[in-house]
Design brief:
It is a single chain. With about 140 residues, the protein is of the alpha/beta class. It has a single domain (about 40-135), classed as RlpA-like domain (Barwin-like endoglucanases, Beta Barrel), CATH 2.40.40. It is about 20% helix and about 25% strand. It is built from three helices and six strands. The chain has helices at about 1-15, 20-25, 110-115, and strands at about 40-45, 70, 80-85, 90-95, 105-110, 125-130. A six-stranded mixed barrel has the order 1-5-2-4-3-6. The relative contact order is 0.21.
Length: about 140
């Protein structure tokens, strides 16, 4: 056993010969491209009333009655499906704003969207965020 560990230690220090390394790597055209993640998990909050009527990052006027949200992870203008992991309720919202960079939340929803998810009284909840294809977005 001790001999095996010594040999293993020597190979770790010296490494494999270059011929062996080249054989262990897949050819460049065989490397699979990693798919972009379309599902995110994290904390959700909702906008304070003081933001009602202010401009969002994409120039729209924020309204607590619209189904919109702020998100730093995904691009502006896309539609996402947000699921409350506590009760299973879902809502489809449009990203039209950004969250303050120091916030570690994944989305900040309008009050209308938060009430559809049923967490207005709690303030925060754990959610699953799914990126929607254009064909699944509202109005398409």
């Amino acid at each position: 056993m001790a001999v095996f560990l010594k040999v293993l230690f020597i190979f770790a220090l010296v490494g494999l010969p270059k011929e062996k390394i080249a054989q262990t790597r897949p050819p460049a055209n065989k490397i699979k491209q990693k798919k972009t993640t379309r599902v995110f998990y994290g904390q959700a909050s909702y906008y304070a009333n003081k933001f009602h009527g202010r401009r969002t990052a994409n120039g729209e006027i924020f309204s607590q009655q619209k189904l919109t949200c702020a998100c730093n992870v995904l691009p502006l203008g896309i539609w996402i499906k947000v699921t409350n992991l506590r009760n299973g309720r879902t809502v489809i919202v449009k990203i039209n704003d950004r969250i303050h960079p120091k916030m570690n939340r994944i989305v900040d929803l309008s009050k209308a969207a938060a009430s559809k998810l049923g967490y207005v009284s709690r303030g925060l909840t754990r959610v699953k965020v799914e990126l929607l294809d254009e064909k699944h977005a509202p109005g398409n």
